[in-house]
Amino acid sequence: MKVTFPHMGNQYVATKILLEELGVDIVVPAECNQEALNIGTQHSPESICLPLKVNIGNYMKGFKEGADTIVLTGSCGPCRFGYYSILQKEILKDMGYDDIKVILLDPPQGDYKNFIDSVTELAQTKNPYKILRALKKAIQILYEVDALEEATHYKRPRQKQKGLVDRYYDQFHKDVRKVYGYKETSRVIEKARQDILNIEEEPNREILKIGIIGEIYTVIEPFVNLNIEKKLGDMGIEVHRSLKISHWLTEHLFLSPLNLTMEGKTRKAAEPYIKTMIGGHARETVGHGVRYAQEGFDGIIQIYPFTCMPEIVAQSILPKVETDYNTPYLCLIVDEMTGEAGFNTRIEAFTDLLQRRKELRHNEKLLSGN
Amino acid sequence: MTIKIGIPRGLWVYDYYPLWKTFYEALGAEVILSNPTNKSILDQGVKNTVDEACLPVKIFNGHVLDLKDKVDYIFVPKIMSVYRKEYICPKFCGLPEMVKHSIPDLPPMIDTEINFNRSRKHLMRTVYEFGSYVTTNKKQIKKAYEEALQEYEKFKKQLKQGALPLDGIVKPYVITDSQEQKEIKKSGNAKRIAIMGHSYNLYDTYGSMNLVKKLQDQNIEIITAEMIDYKVINQYAETLEKKMFWSFGRKLLGTAMYLAVEKNVDGIIYLSSFGCGIDSIIEDLFERKIRKEGGIPFLLITVDEHTGEAGVNTRLEAFMDMIDWRKRDEGNLSAHG
């Protein structure tokens, strides 16, 4: 059995560790790129959301390198993601991959037997101690890579010499594919983080802050959001990203089946606008938007894949948040047709607006003499 | 003064209108249904909804606007789930919020939550909440609810017999018509076509560009998912590898499997609206089952506010011609059209 899996931002580092620590043979697919998207677009239903299309492309890369099994997570509605596994199997069958094994890790929803069966099948061991130890290490890695990303968000707008952050960060992605197991990987992550934190800062730069909200896959996967974090960072903007995989995993795999949740504050913030869970992350999207606005961020950007149902609901509500809190809001929708030039123009126009607002506010303060 | 409750003629109206109308009328309220969808309702809806919303949601907002100044309350329940461990569509779940934030200055909304995802234990509490907009008398509400249920059962029976809730209203089904149709069928000339899709797409005559009527005018016998025994649909749907968690999706996929096995139709037309998240999966799986396992001719029509009727007509004609040839040549032509 040789296992591959779809990409979602830096999740691959943790999945790699999980499987390596279990001794499972794996293929880490190449990073998401145009080729993967093209393959996926060609074979997927036209109006399905973008993540599925990219997933298909990822698998193909994995198969090319000898993988014969896919592992993926799922959900049980109401978002489309819950039926990805079934549709992907059909697509792969039509592409001639009849004998690919799919291991699906659905949230247990009370049915822990099925879940545990899938886990033991993947782990090739029934020893719960071994599985839990590997899982613990993988989650540890998730938190570590998320911390690394946070460092890039902080440093990019402040670095004296532009491009240094990305040099270290790109190097990290290359290095991490070469090392094996938790210990080495953790060391590589920490080194990259230290390197980035040590970059010299330009002290007098005016930093704007933008909160990024929206659908988790498009927010997290840099290829599909056209590297928005890097783009904003290079424009001198500190980015705060509402969703992190580490939080998502803890939330969905452990807390929500037990009816616990970390998202209390966010839900509370969303309450005046949307009261119930409607699938996907619509409530969190609105909630995070409100929180960013309350915390005085200069702007909010929502990103989601074209036709994403929960996010359309959020999009209908966010203009109200924008006026209520007087915080500019921009909605970016991505799919395989998104052109980078148009995307850039909109981001630039938005940041110009934020810049201008900030200047105006400063000038008013000066004039009023306070 | 009687309370006026406005029910927008969109989305779930095609499935539940008799239930709600009877309920509120039994309580003494006046129920006002918005006008059938027309150009101005659609245009207003498009103007007051985010571009990315699907056609039925835009149409729904148009209907809300149509009622805005005529009623005391607008009926937009928050329908999350009508069966255990099933959902409708995320947009339905967030519909009251979407409407509220898209259209300014609305009369108060009846946005009680209907959620049977876990159980129906609190069904009566939900019913009382719906009734509380008109009266506080629980006994009266219960009685009205029972009356409404009866009406609803009658409505479902009519659908099963072949009546179509065009624009939300069922016209009593005339038996002589069906006999006539059956005779035509025997003579071998008539076609039997299954039309599939969400009820709010199929039965909205304006939004669907009169698809049903167009077929009826050609003396084509029409089958819809509502006419098939729900137990049968469920039996088929249960054989799916993973539980289908959308109620609409479950109905459609179960029907696809049923039709693929029974092969009792000459063709299938699937009407979808552009950007429908559920259909992007359901329609695809539906089509795979019908083409591969059923070998039945299949036509997908996707509509949105930009769709031109002439193009739809052309495609329909071509599809019908193909079925005619196929019938004449005893099915020797490819099912892939």
From TrEMBL, chain A:
The record's listing under InterPro entries reads:
Dehydratase_Activator_Redct (IPR051805)
Q: Tell me which Gene3D superfamilies the record gives.
A: 3.40.50.11900
Highest taxon of the lineage: Bacteria
Protein's name in the database: DUF2229 domain-containing protein
Instruction: Look up and give the organism this protein is from.
Output: Alkaliphilus metalliredigens (strain QYMF)
Automatic annotation (TrEMBL), chain B:
Residues of the DUF2229 domain: 4-228
Q: Which Pfam families match?
A: DUF2229
Question: What is the protein name for this chain?
Answer: DUF2229 domain-containing protein
Organism, as annotated: Alkaliphilus metalliredigens (strain QYMF)
